[in-house]
Amino acid sequence: MTILIVGLLLFLGTHSISIFNAAWRNKVVERIGVAAWQGIYSLLAIAGFVMIIYGYGVARLDSTVIYTPPAWMAHVSMLLLVFVFPLLLAAYLPGRIQRATKHPMLAATKIWAFAHLLANGALADVILFGAFLAWAVVDRISMKNRTPLPVPSIPATRFNDVIAIVLGLVIYVAFVLWLHAILIGVSPITR
Fold first, then answer.
1. Which residue, 73, 188, 56, is CA-closest to 122?
2. Do 145 and 55 fall within a single domain?
3. Which of 37, 62, 87 is the last residue of a domain?
4. Which tens digit of pLDDT belongs to each residue from 41-89?
5. CA 191 – CA 179 distance, rounded (Å)
6. Do 73 and 152 belong to one domain?
7. C-alpha closest to that of 109 among 131, 127, 92, 79
C-alpha cells in the first residue's frame, strides 16, 4: 500500500503544482527553461505513474474490503465509462464537446474515478480512485481562479467531435473486451 500512496503523491503532486503554487512554477520555468521543467516534471510524473501501477497491483491482492457494492452497480459503472474516452480525446480535439465541458480531461478523470468507486470497494480501490476523484475536483475548482496552461491540440475542424466520439467509443469497446484484462489483469465483463 505504501508504494501506491507514494506513487499517488508523486503523480498527483506534480500535477498539482499549478493548482497550489502557479507563481512558483512560473519562476522555476523562467529560471531553468520550459524544456528542463517539462523533462523534470515528466520524469517525476512517470515515476509516480509506474509506482501507482505496481503499488495498486500489489495492494489489490491483499486489500481490506471497505464496502461491497451491489452487482448491478457494475452496469452503472460501465455505462458511465462510455463517456471517458470521447472526453479524453475531446481535450485534444477542439470542438463543441471541448467548449461545453470546458475541461474534458478533468471531466473524464472524474467520471472514470467515480465509476470505479461505484463498482469497487476494497481499500486499494478507494485510495486510488478516491485520490484521483478528489484531485480532479480540486483542479476543476482551481481553474476558476487561475489561467489554465494551454493544452496542445490539433486544429479545430467540424469533424473533431465526430472523431472524438467514434474513436473514443472504439477505444472503449477495445478496453472492455481486451485491453482492461491485458493491462489491468481484470476483465470488466467477466466479474
1. 56
2. no
3. 62
4. 999 999 999 999 999 999 988 879 999 999 999 999 999 999 999 999 9
5. 15
6. yes
7. 131
Determine the Cα–Cα distance for residues 72 and 88; give it in Å rounded to an integer: 26
Q: What is the DSSP letter of 82?
A: T
SS3 65: strand
Which backbone phi and psi does 65 adopt, to 5 degrees? -85, 120
Average per-residue pLDDT for the chain: 92
Tell whether 141 and 184 lie within a shared domain.
Answer: yes
Residue 77: name the closest of 66, 69, 85 by CA. 69
Q: What is the pLDDT of residues 143-169, one digit of tens each?
A: 888 777 677 777 888 899 999 999 999
Bridge partners (DSSP) of residue 65 are: 122
